[in-house]
Amino acid sequence: MHDIGLAAVKNAQGEVGFRVLVGGGLGRTPIIGTEICDFVPWQHAITYLESIVRVYNEYGRRDNIYKARIKILVKAIGIDEFRRRVEADWQFTKDGPCTITVEELNRVAAFFTAPDYEQLPESDAAVAAQLSESRAFSNWVQRNVKPHKVPGYAAVVLSLKKTGIAPGDATAAQMDAAAELAERFSFGELRVTHMQNLVLADVKESDLIALWQAARELGMATPNIGLLTDIICCPGGDFCSLANARSIPLAKAIAERFDNIDFQHDIGEIELNMSGCMNACGHHHVGNIGILGVDKDGEEWYQVSIGGAQGNDSSLGRVIGPSFTFAQTPEVIARLLQVYVRERFADERFIDTVRRIGHGPFKEYVYAAPVIDAEGLTGEEYALLAAPYDTPLYSQGV
């Protein structure tokens, strides 16, 4: 999804290099990047990238700010012609001064030393006991704790997606406390993800219980990483002058609608991304469910798309149909999930079901009956709205 993307790879001889993609991007013209070269040796990474930029500088659009992107040039002349121009330019600089030497690589690599890991057992008895005794801890480990390449360690995601809080938001006090957790549990290192969460990358498994307890007190232990309420959300109309609609209040409404961790775990992995305008700061194009705020005669409406995905199996979502009001949107999400639960195979993710059966069944069910404005309804009333249309509830006029 980037102007230039690099993926570290090894060729048949075991040599390290990079697969290079160009011309990706979101925003007004969402495009998935195209491979321009399957293997550039690491020594030539900088010179190859310079050639890409030089070709763009020479032939890219300068007359239109909305088209001044590599993706527009690639689309206009085609990837084969873009590759030809890059390769022709690269012949002049491939072995030039910006070629990376082993000495320079080692000099830079010296700044990135590994932490002082201890030799630890692969599992911890106290953690194993806690997993069997505490469902809350087990849920947290299942969703927020990730494998580590060093035995006895784990990576831990601190969730900034607690219901009632703006996705990705943290107070100054929480950030100070997170820094203290990093000092105490993760060699002083704290990472921020594009998913709007925090990561402690090097946590001893024997420290997981203590870390979980501390994170719970801070409101950073919601076991929802990769689940429905782990929403990516831009600031929207509350804070951004470019936005067409609010994002944060809608994310809050959706999180509250589905604030049942057992339900979320049953639904399984699903990415919901939301943007307040076409600039796509919330990456809605690549959400399994994407929500885009649009302006209709001065009022905020929301387009819903499904089928987007990020990662090595990326895809762009497709809008299911006409847009919805703020109050209707949580019910639309509920209807999409109903189709998924009805149609899915065992252990099949939402994105896999969409790809298998297509958009049709989802669109048909969402628009089968008017989506009722659900603003201000109680949880019981929401449950009535979520019932399938062939139940007696609807025949009784509910």
Please describe what this structure looks like.
The protein has 398 residues and is α+β, with helices and mostly antiparallel strands. It has three domains: 4-109, Sulfite Reductase Hemoprotein, domain 1; 125-217, Sulfite Reductase Hemoprotein, domain 2 (Alpha-Beta Complex); 232-395, Sulfite Reductase Hemoprotein, domain 1 (2-Layer Sandwich), CATH 3.30.413. 37% of the residues lie in helices and 16% in strands. The protein contains 15 helices and twelve strands. It has helices at residues 45-59, 70-77, 79-90, 102-109, 125-133, 135-144, 172-185, 208-218, 248-257, 261-267, 329-343, 350-357, 360-366, 379-386, 392-395; strands spanning 4-10, 16-22, 34-41, 145-146, 153-158, 191-192, 198-204, 232-233, 272-275, 289-296, 299-306, 318-319. The strands form three sheets. A five-stranded mixed β-sheet has the order 8-9-10-11-12, covered by helices on one side. A four-stranded antiparallel β-sheet has the order 4-5-7-6. A three-stranded antiparallel β-sheet has the order 1-2-3. α1 (45-59) packs across α3 (79-90), α2 (70-77) packs across α3 (79-90) and α7 packs antiparallel against α8. The longest helix has 15 residues, at 45-59. The chain starts with a strand and ends with a helix. Residues 374-379 and 381-398 have low confidence and may be disordered.
